[in-house]
Amino acid sequence: MQHTLHFLIDLKFNNNRNWMKSNDARYREAKATFEDLVEKVIADIKTFDKSLGDVKTADCLFRIYRDVRFSANKEPYKTNFGAFMAPGGRKSEFAGYYMHFEPDSSFLGGGIYMPQSDILRAIREYVFNNTAEFKQIICDSQFKKYFPALWGDTLKSAPAGFAKDFKDIDLLKYKHYVVSHDVSNEFWLDKDVVEKILRVFKAQHTFNEFLNKAVSKIR
Questions:
Q1: Can you tell me whether residue 144 is helix, strand or coil?
Q2: Residues 164, 166: Cα–Cα separation, whole Å
Q3: Beta carbons of 152 and 175 less than 8 angstroms apart
Q4: Which residues pair with 77 in a beta bridge?
Q5: How many H-runs (helices) and E-runs (strands) does the chain carry?
Q6: Burial group, residue 162, by CB count within 10 angstroms (0-12, 13-18, 19+)
Q7: Lowest mean pLDDT among 69-73, 107-111, 160-164
């Protein structure tokens, strides 16, 4: 993984098509190394989360090319490798596991990011109707070891259709139901990196399982 890390560092300072073209062999090697890691992680996730089904590595990987059409930043490439491992792959509406490999900004996590309005509503209703179970999941010591709090923006007031005086109303204000655990550059170079990744994802499993019960009610 050291080659992949060094490639991404260099890309960060040379984010242009000419540089990428002249370093195409490095890119392909770095990408292949990350893909190999994702393949191993997917195989291990499937041992405790059967919901992934027959999802393949290629289904989960994000392209390195940026969509610059509506962005002030015209740099053509992302400076990370990413993969979302969920039922159906990276475009899934279900909760999954995310790996983000970026120099000085790497993290592991997942859940459901930017859900469609009906899915967000379904999750909120499921949390409302199963609050004790949800709190038990997010307050579990192993979960909190990696995810002290849920990640992302929240509403300033109660979401429409829910009583403002609901005692756990803050649990319904999230715009995403996502968790994130930062990791260092050195994390990826550890010989036991797969095992370390799996420890994080195993701690996240019940969180994803809860969210997917909510999504399954409408999908």
A1: helix
A2: 6
A3: yes
A4: 65
A5: 8, 4
A6: middle
A7: 69-73
Give the Cα separation of 193 and 154 in Å (integer). 33
Burial (0-12, 13-18, 19+ Cβ within 10 Å), 81: buried
CA–CA–CA angle 101, 63, 95 (5° rounding): 70
Residue 129 CB neighbours (<10 A): 10
Helix axes 131-138, 117-129, angle to 10 degrees: 100
What token pair was written down for 65?
Answer: 């090319």
pTM above threshold 0.85? yes
The pLDDT value recorded for residue 37 is: 98
Looking at the predicted structure, is the pLDDT value of residue 71 above 90?
A: no
169 close to 142: Cβ distance less than 8 angstroms = no
Q: Is 79:66 a contact under the CB 8 Å cutoff?
A: no
Annotated domain spans of the chain: 2-216
Backbone phi, psi, residue 34, to 5°:
-65, -40
